[in-house]
Specification:
Helix content is 48%, strand content 11%. It has 486 residues and is of the alpha/beta class. The protein folds into two domains: 8-283, NAD(P)-binding Rossmann-like Domain (Rossmann fold, 3-Layer(aba) Sandwich), CATH 3.40.50.720; 286-485, Orthogonal Bundle (N-(1-d-carboxylethyl)-l-norvaline Dehydrogenase, domain 2). The strands form three sheets. It has a five-stranded parallel beta sheet with strand order 5-2-1-6-7, with helices on both faces. It has a three-stranded mixed beta sheet with strand order 4-3-9. α4 crosses α6 (163-177) and α7 (193-208) packs antiparallel against α8. Keywords: Oxidoreductase. Its EC number is 1.1.1.67. GO terms for molecular function: mannitol 2-dehydrogenase activity.
């Protein structure tokens, strides 16, 4: 049955549907980046509040700034912005339709419709999932003022290309109309994601309108948050799976039986009571996000990189591979856990046990290709901070250096069985060219300052990396990983 508001009451009885009427909802949030993660995570929390008769004025209006977002918009609007979530629990699958999203703004090159929507006084939160690499940071972590998109938005602030430029334009309208500020909420996997969003928005505004930048800095809030839920990409298997529940949904989402959301309680215009459906509000998001980013997100790169080289297709497949599973465990215990603090109710080792179980869930077909995508941002964001802490503390780094060597080998573009690795990074051409050079001159790989900063100047890391990359090329990834584990 085609998913829509009209067919919702007629779906199979084992499909959980909203208990609220969509006619009672009013948009209070805009979310930029309507991918699978958002719908399995933030949209679900809002939906479950609405099921309790709460947060009816906090419905979500979807938005996007990329041409590809227009296709997503069409699919969502055709089914009244409803989404089928399929929970993939090893004990059994279940389906739930969520209805917390009520509209999707037109996707336009100059973002006029998005700016107008965010300028409406009813909008109190603008949230986003734009990926770790989407915040226009340079290698030093500052705003990349030389990026063509940033240059465009500085020159034409009323017709911006970026989501951040659109936010600034909307905030200008709100300031001038007296509508007041909204909260900017990042839901991306970045440590201090609210601080980074603050830097991008205020830094960009300052380049064209210093007075507006000061108003934003004073009045707008940017809470840090930690988000967690594995949501696989949607492909033919997922489309067939949703049909097995009797639903024709063009954009279903499959996800694991786990969610976590830890949020700094800093909202200038109010917020939903997400804690009533399992979220955690705290003044110390950092400890939670450090544990998650350093063990789960860094762990993803630790298994995806050799997984790609050894022709493993899925994350659960890497956990069934004794070498890759052993590699993750050894690096995590010896090289990461010493740099992770406990949080209330969870030690680092207990959290490691949890993520190893989650990664091994065979029902989640989370592909190596998806997890390994944009390694240039993910290695820099998740692995390199641990490396720097370990080097400063004098703790082991050989496993982390090995992962960097495996990534350099992966970027050469072929697997160990000789098959081709298709481009999988925004900087793929640069990385591939450098990987070929690094085969004979290993140090050149970590001298890419745009990704490694000054790490190549640390002799302990440089030596460990060069030894690992030489071994990977001469003996192969399998033998090198085996030697490290032993």
């Amino acid at each position: 049955m085609r998913l829509s508001l009209d067919t919702l009451p007629h779906l199979p009885k084992d499909v959980r549907i909203p208990s609220y009427s969509r006619a009672d909802l009013r948009a209070g949030m805009v979310h930029i980046g309507l991918g699978n993660f958002h719908r399995a995570h933030q949209a679900w929390y809002v939906h479950r509040l609405m099921d309790q008769g709460l947060a009816l004025d906090w419905a979500i209006c979807g938005a996007g700034v990329r041409p590809a977002d227009a296709a997503q918009r069409d699919k969502m609007l055709e089914q009244d912005c409803l989404t089928t979530l399929i929970e993939l629990d090893p004990a059994g699958k279940s389906a739930e339709v969520i209805g917390s999203m009520v509209d999707f703004t037109p996707v336009e090159p100059e973002n006029g419709a998005l700016i107008a929507k965010m300028a409406e006084s009813a909008i109190k939160i603008v949230a986003m999932t734009v990926t770790e690499g989407g915040y226009y940071q340079n290698a030093q972590g500052d705003l990349d003022v030389a990026h063509a998109d940033i240059v465009h938005d500085v020159a034409r602030p009323d017709t911006p290309k970026t989501a951040f430029g659109a936010i600034i334009a909307a905030l200008k309208l709100r300031r001038d109309s007296g509508a007041g500020p909204f909260t900017c909420l990042s839901c991306d996997n970045l440590q201090g994601n609210g601080d980074i969003l603050h830097q991008t928005v205020v830094g960009l505004a300052r380049l064209s309108d210093p007075d507006l930048a000061s108003w934003i800095d004073t009045n707008v809030t940017f809470p840090n948050s930690m988000v967690d839920c594995i949501a696989a990409a949607t492909g033919p298997n997922e489309l067939e799976l949703v049909r097995s529940f009797g639903i024709d949904d063009a954009v279903p989402v499959t996800h694991e039986n786990f969610r976590q959301w830890v949020i700094e309680d800093k909202f200038c215009a109010g917020r939903p009571d997400w804690d009533k459906v399992g979220a955690t509000f705290t003044d110390d998001v950092h400890a939670f996000e450090a544990m998650k980013l350093r063990l789960l997100n860094a762990g993803h790169q630790i298994i995806a990189t050799p997984g790609e080289l050894l022709s493993v297709e899925t994350i659960s497949g890497t956990m069934a591979h004794p070498l890759i599973k052993g590699l993750l465990h050894k690096i995590a215990v010896e090289e990461i856990v010493p740099h992770v603090a406990a949080v209330p109710g969870m030690t680092p080792l207990a959290y490691l046990d949890l993520i190893e179980t989650r990664f091994a869930n065979p029902e989640i077909r989370d592909t190596i290709r998806r997890v390994a995508f944009d390694g240039s941002s993910r290695h820099a964001g998740f692995l390199h901070p641990i490396l720097r802490d370990a080097l400063a503390a004098g703790t082991p780094i050989n496993g982390l250096a090995l992962i960097e060597a495996l990534w350099a080998r992966m970027c050469a573009g072929t697997r160990e069985d000789g098959t081709t690795i298709d481009p999988n990074d925004p900087h793929w051409d640069t990385l591939t060219a450098q990987a070929i050079i690094a085969k004979n001159t290993p140090i050149s790989w970590i001298q890419q300052k745009q990704f490694y900063g000054n790490l190549s100047q640390n002799k302990r890391f440089a030596d460990a990396f060069q030894n690992a990359l030489n071994s990977v090329w001469e003996k192969g990834a399998t033998s090198t990983i085996q030697n490290y584990i032993e």
